[in-house]
Each structure stands twice: as C-alpha cells, then as structure tokens.
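The methods section describes the discrete structure representation at length, but only in general terms. What matters is that the chain and its backbone geometry are given together, residue for residue. Nothing conveys this as quickly as seeing an actual entry. For illustration, here is how one protein appears when written out as sequence plus structure tokens:
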Amino acid sequence: MVRASRSPKSPKARPIRNGAGNGSAKRLATPQSVNSAIKSICDVMRRSNCAGAMQYVPELTWILFLRILDEREAREADAAEAVGAEFTPSIEPPYRWCDWAAPYDESSPTVGNGKAQGWKRKELQDGSLGSFFAFVNGQLLPYLKGLRERPNAAPKQKIISEIMSGVERVRIDTERNMLDIFDKVDAIKDETIEPTHVFPLSQVYEGLLLKMGEKGNDGGQFFTPREVIRAIVRTINPQLGQTVYDPAAAPGASSCRRISTCGPRSATRPQAINSRR
C-alpha cells in the first residue's frame, strides 16, 4: 500500500498493513467470522471498564473510524501516486493510526519520515507508565477535535472533528487492554475480508447494533437480509450520476451494495452515486 508523501521532497512510503506486521492476518470469509472478530474485541472491552454495550459500542466506534480512515487514505495516496498527483492526508504524523496504534513492525517499509509502522506506539510503550493514555487523552483527541478550526480546513477534516467531538477520553482501563484492542482492530481490513459474501463495514456495525439489542438494551435487531438487498439493487439498477434516497440506511448495507454494483468504473469516482438518508 502506498502512502503518498506530504511534500515533493519527502521519500515515497509503502507501509505494510497486515495487522501484526507479519502477514498472518486471519481471513474473514463469512459474516459470522466478522462478527466473531468484533465479539473478541468487545470481550476485551467488557473486562476493561466498559461493562455494557452502551459503553463499549461508542468506544469501539471511534477506534474503528480512525482505523478505517487510515486504510482509506492509504488507498487514496496509492491512487494519487499512480497518476503522479499530490496527496495531503487529513491527519498528520504522529496522529495517524499507522503511527500510534498499528503494531510496530521494524521490518516494514516506512510510513513517512523514515519511520516504520507503529513507531509512535513503540515510543509510547518504551516510555514511562501512563505515557499512552497521556498521549491519547492529552494530544491525540484534542488534535482531532481541533482539525475543523484550522485555516482552510478540508471538508474531511471538519467531518473528523465532528465525529470525534463527543469523545472526552479513553474509557479503557489499562494500557495492556487498549493495545490488545488495537491489535484486533488493526487485523480487520479489506484485504482480509471476503467481499463476495460480506459487506465489510456494514457487517461490522450490524454486529455492534446487535450487541446493543441484547440484555435489555434498546439498540434494536432489525436488519435487511442480504438476499433481499441484492434483489432490490438488481431491480432498481442504479446508474452512475444518480442519487439514491434511503431514509432507513441504518449501517448502510444497501448503500454499500449499490456502490459495489457499479463495478470497477466507480473505483476512482466515489462521488458518482450519492446516497442520502
């Protein structure tokens, strides 16, 4: 995966994004396997000061958001480099997931500035007790919330700040549990998920919503079967340039299917089909 440099003078970087850094990330071929991976993360959160789904689902949501954002920007940087264009990431080092949360891998190519994947994480782990929480609560979260206040802030930076505005601090109780969660989240990526039978992002959030509907919580358990979604999309036959209104989008499984149906033609035109709730 190519991460385009932030300036013409910086060296090109090709980070390896394989979870533990050794290429052994587990293949997630079914919705059940994705749900199982999410459950293992929730299990760690339950033992770390997030006893109920109403506590650990919001915590996991912002962590997953930063993980997915980092992977998407890596792909965008890859596409930009392929055509010789400049790419400016929304988040600067050391606040990118690949700097502070991804597992350290000294054998991987650099993620910029001559540093390996997870370099900031290693620095914090090697530091004094409490360094990790001090960084996340005292530096990372204020930085992300403040992106929208920057002069000429990009639309994506404003969205990041809006999403992170409700996160006051990390709820996880120990550094060991937090790093365990980061490792498990980092292993959930597009390259390890089978796209034929799984809509990756929507499946993750459906699994979380299901957890919120358990044990007396009122999160609900109302999901549209995949076969029904496919039938609806085939019937509607959405075309590039059209707008789809979906007031009951929920985790977005229908929107994911509509976009994927357009095939490779839309790979460089994510704005081609607009989905509105």
In short: The domain at 1-198 is CATH 1.20.1260.30 (Ferritin). The chain is about 45% helix and 5% strand.
